[in-house]
Design a protein that fits this description.
Blueprint: E1 3-4, E2 13-14, E3 16-19, H1 29-41, E4 46-48, H2 63-75, E5 82-87, H3 100-114, E6 119-124, H4 133-145, E7 149-155, H5 159-171, E8 179-183, H6 191-194, H7 204-213, E9 217-220, H8 227-234, H9 241-247, H10 250-266, H11 270-281, E10 285-289, H12 294-301, H13 310-317
Parallel strand pairs: 3-4, 3-10, 4-5, 5-6, 6-7, 7-8, 8-9, 9-10
Antiparallel strand pairs: 1-2
Helix pairs in contact: 1-12, 2-3, 4-5, 8-10, 10-13
The chain binds NADP nicotinamide-adenine-dinucleotide phosphate.
NADP nicotinamide-adenine-dinucleotide phosphate binds near residues 20 and 240.
């Protein structure tokens, strides 16, 4: 496993993070516990969850946070893991929840569910561009200053909004966003393909900005819903509905052959190559992986130590 150091998080941050959208709902608790054990055995440290994952009703508990909290308490692993969660997601009808009351509700619910007073990383799950950055950074500052949040992250924020927020925070001596979580995978995508304009997907201008700022990136849906693994194992007919609607286009289809070639030449699995693309393309990137079984996770984790050369990275992305 390769790691980043993100101060003041006291443990190394693994470059593969375990995603958990379906934990405790479509992935039953017994499988989740086995996946968490397998991830920890492979020396993975980062767990990525959110207040809204699996929520049955607005404001209710998150089954994903609850099952992770149960595992942390049963194994005593809290101090060995990097706990990342998110809050202030808009309500189901799309209404913004950028108020102090909503923020504190989410923080307290996550603390209870996860059984942890502190979060190593806490992300604003979405942006609300109608709310000025000075209000947002002012509202978040006490939670970072008091140590409840070790690192503040922006999820699904554009680089221009992050830049504006951090410029304001720096000028006023407040904590800044220290990381960003957006959709990023070898197979490119757009918010339109997800039918969700509040999402942010990586593009070349954004990647150049992240590199210039040296800002760590947490890449979600980093396996493009299994796009390469499934297409190479079963053909395009084997793609699940989400990988088909969000990722199937001529550009990404051409990348399938490139992944197949590297897989045949190196013996790496398509999942290991897709994950390796993210962890190698930016010095401080973390690939958040979602898996639905221990077998898938073990396959994906074979990408943990993969080093891809600059020419392999260019070849995969179609630049060569
Ligand atoms: N911040 C945000 O707004 C946001 C949004 C989305 C996700 N996330 C985070 O990112 C995590 C990962 O995202 P994700 O679950 O959307 O996507 P992902 O990692 O791109 O894909 C997960 C799916 O890929 C397939 N898969 C995984 N490993 C495989 C393997 N080795 N071989 C074959 N197929 C494999 C499985 O599909 P099947 O189940 O069909 O087999 C699995 O459900 C989430 O759990 C969550 O923590 C954050």
């Amino acid at each position: 496993m390769r790691y980043l150091s993100l101060q003041p998080i006291p443990v190394p941050v693994s470059k593969i993070a375990l995603g958990s959208t379906y934990f405790g709902t479509t992935i039953p608790e017994k499988t989740v516990m086995a996946m968490l054990d397998a991830f920890a055995t492979a020396n993975g440290t980062v767990l990525d969850t959110a207040r809204v994952y699996g929520q049955e009703y607005a404001g209710g508990p998150s089954p994903s946070e609850l099952v992770i909290g149960k595992w942390l308490s049963e194994t005593g692993m809290r101090n060995r893991m990097v706990l990342a969660t998110k809050g202030m997601h808009p309500s189901g009808d799309g209404k913004s929840r950028f108020t102090y009351r909503d923020l504190m509700h989410d923080i307290e619910m996550s603390q209870q569910s996860l059984g942890s007073e502190t979060f190593d990383i806490w992300f604003l799950h979405r942006d609300d561009p109608q709310v000025p950055v000075d209000e947002i950074m002012g509202m978040m500052a006490p939670l970072v200053q008091s140590g409840i949040i070790r690192i503040l992250g922006a999820s699904n924020w554009t680089t221009s909004r992050i830049e504006a927020a951090n410029t304001y925070a720096k000028t006023h001596g407040l904590p800044t966003f220290a990381t960003s979580e957006i959709q990023w995978s070898l197979a490119s995508s757009t918010p339109e393909s997800w039918n969700d304009p509040s999402l942010v997907c990586m593009d070349s201008n954004s990647l150049a900005w992240y590199r210039k700022k040296q800002m760590p990136i947490f890449a979600f849906s980093s396996q493009s819903k299994g796009f390469f693994s499934k297409a190479i194992a079963h053909g395009l007919a084997g793609l699940n509905e989400k990988s088909r609607s969000r990722f199937l286009n001529p550009d990404n289809e051409a990348k399938i052959e490139r992944v197949r070639t590297i897989s045949e030449n190196t013996g790496l699995s398509p999942a290991a190559i897709a994950t390796g693309y993210i962890t190698n393309e930016h010095p401080s990137s973390v690939a958040i992986v979602g898996c639905s079984s221990v077998g898938q996770l073990e396959d994906t984790l074979t990408g943990a130590d993969v080093l891809l050369s600059p020419s392999q990275l260019d070849y995969l992305s179609g630049q060569r």
